[in-house]
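Handoff note, outgoing to incoming analyst
You'll be picking up this chain. Sequence as last confirmed:
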Amino acid sequence: MLLVDTNILFDLLEQESQWALWSLRQLKAQSKVHDLVINPIVYAELSPAYDSHQALDQHVEDMELAFHEIPKSALYLAGLVHRDYRQSGGPRESVLPDFLIGAHAAVLGCGILTRDTRRYRRYFPRVPLVAPS
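Most recent structure output, in case you need it:
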């Protein structure tokens, strides 16, 4: 199983993105060896790009992405890690989604397909990342 980060899916929506081809290739390659999943955070971050939840659901289905709820253990872990981030001087930006995605992957024991590795590497060092080198 591999959790797909929102930035990968936005690359596909914004075909002019410099990362669109890389993200498309990675999704195709990773789908051959992993079940690709998203969670409620990724779903919510994608929602403004669609006219309805039915349209988003159809796109998720067309991309063969499974939807997994976030278990309480991952929510708890995300809260702890976010607290550590804030106590170490991390700004109060909207970063909690990264911690929820990272904690979800940690609890599932899976990796993350992403282009934004900074927080994942620092706060979830045991979570494997598929990212540009």
